[in-house]
Write a structure and sequence with these properties.
alpha/beta; Rossmann fold; seven-stranded mixed sheet; two-stranded antiparallel ribbon; 6 helices; globular; binds S-adenosylmethionine
Length: about 220
């Protein structure tokens, strides 16, 4: 496949500016900022739109889906506190950009996408860029029980509720970050499994995601 991946001073400069912008919006985790400074986000865009890649906006990636806004990716990544070697389940691979950030943070990533076209694109593009998560195609609203338990679970689509099956796939001490709400807006929710049947839940800022569609979702 003929991908045209060029990362020159123009894109590198735009990426540095994006990192400064995210800092000014309150992202403070230096490892997250470093990862955003490293992953060439324009590789997920058609060449015509390369400079759009470094604006703090979500952008269409086909099949009615979007690549998440950089601020949202940074916000969710910061909340997750990924440490090297952790097993992370990502629900909603989409473009694969968030996947690359998690890999840069040193996670072993299990990522699942329900849209077949997007799945086929990411299984080609990410390894070509040197990123190697475990890819799955299907309904991630039920998690991936075969590979559980996970240290962290990140959901990159808006859910109507937190699926219980997902919580059961966390290690004790593990954490899920998931946007929960209606079709219009969702609160970022973070839940830590503090014991076999004990969970600490915190609701944070409001975002707008595409819907999580599936058995334990919309
Ligand atoms: N982090 C991704 C990115 O930056 O490209 C986010 C992509 S988009 C906001 C959310 C993705 O979740 C979409 O690609 C959508 O198809 C996917 N999705 C929705 N419901 C899903 C489900 N039940 N299982 C797996 N993926 C799902």
């Amino acid at each position: 496949m003929a991908y045209k991946f060029i990362d020159n001073y123009r894109e590198k400069g735009a990426r540095k500016k994006l990192v400064e912008h995210l800092k000014s919006r309150g992202i403070a985790d230096s490892r997250v900022l470093q990862a955003i400074g490293k992953v060439p986000r324009h590789f997920f865009f058609d060449e015509t739109f390369w400079l759009q890649a470094y604006k703090d906006i979500a952008f269409p990636i086909g099949d009615g889906q979007t690549i998440s806004q950089p601020y949202t990716v940074a916000y969710q990544s910061e909340l997750l506190h990924v440490t090297p070697g952790e097993k992370v389940l990502e629900i909603g691979t989409g473009s694969g950009y968030q996947t690359c950030i998690l890999l840069e943070l040193g996670a072993e990533v299990f990522t699942i996408e329900r849209q077949v076209n997007l799945y086929h694109r990411t299984i080609q593009v990410l390894p070509y860029m040197g990123y190697k998560p475990h890819f799955f195609c299907g309904d991630g609203s039920k998690g991936i029980p075969e590979h559980a338990p996970y240290d962290k679970i990140i959901v990159t689509a808006g859910a109507p509720f937190v699926p219980e099956v997902m919580l059961q796939q966390l290690k004790i001490g593990g954490q899920v970050v998931i946007p929960v709400g209606d079709e219009k807006e969702q609160k970022m929710v973070t839940i830590i499994r503090v014991g076999e049947n004990d969970f600490d839940r915190i609701e944070l800022d409001t975002f707008r995601f595409v819907p999580l569609v599936g058995d334990q979702a919309w």
